[in-house]
Design goal:
Layout: H1 3-29, H2 36-43, H3 62-73, H4 82-103, E1 107-108, E2 111-112, H5 114-118, H6 120-139, H7 144-170, H8 178-203, H9 208-235, H10 238-241, H11 247-250, H12 256-264, H13 267-284, H14 295-307, H15 310-329, H16 336-350
Antiparallel strand pairs: 1-2
């Protein structure tokens, strides 16, 4: 398949997921009490800060697309996967609302985050409400398949929260091992993607063996996705990512490029360790805030990460996880068209700019 054709196919798969999930997602959000319904609508890009209709960037919609394809793995129609697509998207956005507040991020999808516009209390409440809605959507059918899907989403949600807790704790440590970082990212990103690509199959009646193999694909895909995200968090173009330049460096995140660079050894690695330790001490003593560092200082740290090999190692890890994700698909019998779309989505995840 040519790159242009593959790009078109991925765009169509993502758009189908968004188109089929959004009406059900909107209906779910309409159940929320005011003003949470309005705040959630702002977060999803359906209205602007003044409450006027908008067509904001609602995200890549990878998870809904995976949930619909997951249902088709079993031979079911994509509609069978819609409750799973909506539930996973609700949990994902619950995590974004809370993450933005905890990380102090002021921009998401090219506009102000919910806590910046509506305040921290609303960001917390709406996040909690979206989390509850996810399980309401799955369980209201009253079927055994809905209950099995909810169990998988429960486990994935707990792992996602574990990952966020690990991420925060690592910010206050001088050193984190590559293995610890991969475990954290597997929890924070891999677990929910794993659930997304199995939940539709479970709703379609798949056995646990099939669902587990699909989860392996999703988990590896999540690690590849996060590795690319970590690269974009340092070297991404703000016009494409919607975030500040050097966003992860500003937050002192122990992302894969940073951890790999620190573990590499050598002059660049040692100098990076010294600078990061000095930065952490200055911030802890309140002599400098994150906003007090200028662009040259962030650029110097990024250059040291690259010189120590953190950038190239992370790129290679994304490709390695991509290969493992595709290998997991070989364990599952499915229509060839569905397999091609899952492969194309995996390719999309490791070759993107936002």
């Amino acid at each position: 398949m040519s790159p242009a054709k593959q790009e078109l196919d991925v765009a169509a798969v993502l758009e189908r997921g968004r188109t089929m999930a959004t009406p059900v997602l909107r209906a779910a959000v309409d159940r929320l009490a005011a003003p949470m319904d309005t705040v959630a609508a702002y977060h999803f890009g359906w209205i602007d800060a003044d409450g006027k209709p908008a067509h904001g960037d609602g995200g890549k919609a990878v998870r809904p697309a995976l949930a619909l394809l997951s249902a088709e793995v079993t031979g079911a129609s994509p509609e069978v996967g819609v409750p799973g697509a909506v539930a996973v998207e609700l949990v994902h956005n619950f995590s974004l609302l809370h993450d933005d507040l905890m990380d102090g991020d002021e921009q998401r999808r090219h506009r102000d985050t919910v806590w910046k516009v509506h305040g921290p209390a609303q960001a917390i409440l709406v996040g909690d409400a979206l989390f509850a809605l996810a399980f309401e959507i799955l369980l209201e059918s009253g079927t055994a398949e809905g209950a099995r899907a909810a169990r998988r989403l429960t486990v994935a949600s707990r792992k996602l929260i574990d990952g966020q807790a690990q991420d925060i704790s690592y910010e206050h440590r001088d050193r984190v091992t590559v293995e610890e970082c991969l475990e954290m990212e597997g929890n924070k990103t891999g677990a929910l993607l794993a659930c997304a690509v199995s939940i539709g199959a479970v709703l379609g009646g798949a056995d646990d063996e099939t669902a587990d193999a699909l989860e392996e694909y999703g988990y590896r895909l999540g690690l590849a996705f996060q590795a690319v995200d970590d690269l974009l968090g340092i070297w991404g173009d703000p016009a494409a990512t919607g975030k500040q330049t050097w966003s992860d460096l500003r937050q002192r995140k122990k992302s894969l490029p940073v951890v790999a660079a620190l573990a590499a050894g050598g002059p660049a690695s040692d100098r990076l360790a010294e600078l990061l330790a000095e930065d952490a001490k200055a911030v802890a003593s309140l002599t400098r805030g994150a906003d007090d560092f200028d662009e040259r200082e962030f650029a110097a740290r990024a250059a040291l990460i690259e010189e120590a090999g953190g950038r190239s190692w992370t790129s290679e890890e994304a490709r390695r996880q991509h290969t493992l994700a595709l290998a997991a698909l070989d364990k599952v019998s499915m229509p060839e068209r569905v397999r091609e779309n899952l492969v194309a989505l995996a390719d999309f995840v490791v070759v993107r700019e936002r």
